[in-house]
Each structure stands twice: as C-alpha cells, then as structure tokens.
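#onboarding

Welcome to the new folks! Below is a worked example of what a typical request in this channel looks like: someone posts a single protein sequence, and someone else replies with the predicted structure as tokens. Don't worry about understanding the tokens yet, we'll cover that in week two.

Example request:
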Amino acid sequence: MSVKAKKYLGQHFLKDESTAQKISATLKNNSDYKKILEIGPGMGFMTKYLLENKQYETFVCEIDTESVEYLKNEYIHLSPNIIEGDFLKLNLDDYFDGEQFAVIGNFPYNISTQIVFKTLENKHRIPEFSGMFQKEVAERIAEKPGSKKYGILSVLAQAFYEVEYLFTVPPHVFNPPPKVESGVMRMVRRENFILEVDEKLFFRVVKMGFNQRRKTLRNSLKQFDLSPEVREMEIFSKRPEQLGVAEFIEITKMVETRLKQ
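Example response:
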C-alpha cells in the first residue's frame, strides 16, 4: 500500500532516505521537552527516524485520511499518538496539556507560514522547531536586517527564537518534485522570550512598518500620533528592513507611552 500525493493538500512526499534522516536530526534534543510533534508525516518516511530516538515520545499530526490509515497499518505502535486533523485548528491542550514539545515536519508550502505563526502563538510550550519550507520562505524567516527578504515574519520569529537556515533540499528528492528548491531551518526559543512591551502592540507596530516598507517609519507609523520630538528621532528616519528586533521593541515602548497618555 502507498499513498498518492494530493495536490490540494500541497503534498510532496520525501523519497530520499538520507534527506529524511538529515532533517529528523535537526532538532537539538534539549532537556526542555520530552515529546516531539511531526506535522504532515505522510507515509512516515521521516517518522521512522524520529521513532528511533527513545529519549522522546513522538506524535504525528496528519490531515489526510489516506495517510492516517497508512500510518496506522505500518506503524501500529504509533497509533495512539496519531492526531488526525488540521494542525492549524488543533487545540494543543487536548494533546499536550501544558507540556513542552518540539515541532518538526516537511511542511506543505501553502500553509507553512501559518504553521510558524501558530508556533509563535504557542511559544510558551514549543522550545524548539525545525522543518522544511519553500527555500525562499525559510531564508526569509532566518534573514537578518538590511535585506529585501527581511520582513514581518523575520522580526516576529527572531523576537522569540534564535533562527538558523540549515541547508537546501533539491526538488528531485520528492515525489512529485516541487518546481522550486526547499530549505530547512531551525528555531530555538530564546532563554528570555518574554517581551518588555505589550506583545500585540509589538506585532501591530512591526506589521504597520512593513505594510509600507518603502516609507520611513516616521510616515508608516503616523496613525499613532507620536509627538514631533519623538518622530524627529533618528530611528524614525529608517525603513523597517533596517531595524532589528531590539529597535522595534524600542519603538513599541514609545508607542505604548503615547497610547497611555
């Protein structure tokens, strides 16, 4: 029995053993967690390598019913830990009850950034994350300030995690092969991942800045009605891609002060 990749689910199954093994080894396996959740295991090509590590309990989340049946038949001992459903709609408390766990996967391109956003929402329970994306997306998340690739997702991910682009994966190791290269990246949660400012406001400031990325922050953040003295500060003469996480936090503090007045 095998599973046919479904285009509407964005499935591209790995078929190269060395690549599957290499990705499964990207988690640093730190002491902060004892459980691993693989998203989109398909036919378990990577899952079998995760299961070899007896130090951790492996769970998988799969939306494709055909793949779920395959996994239940081929990995009988994994059955209790197969979560059938959409990771994006999952209530993680139902399965992990406040416990820490790592996330890994060969993510469908069409929902990969949403998976990162859900991880950020649950950062208090996900100390480590690694996976395969469209190369351009993986590079963007790991990008540093000063580049056109650097954007909203770069800042938000790097505010809470150390992000590292690990390696590139060619199309031919998949069935069917995608039209673009893939990239694997890892995020390890920062020791101090609690921001010194209101998190929602920080997200808002970052998004407003990049939504008008050609403008200086003096213009893109106009609606916050900052005082002329504040707006004349050098930091507001920059464009969003020139600012690191610390500078976005600094600006958010100023906005916070203004909103409290």
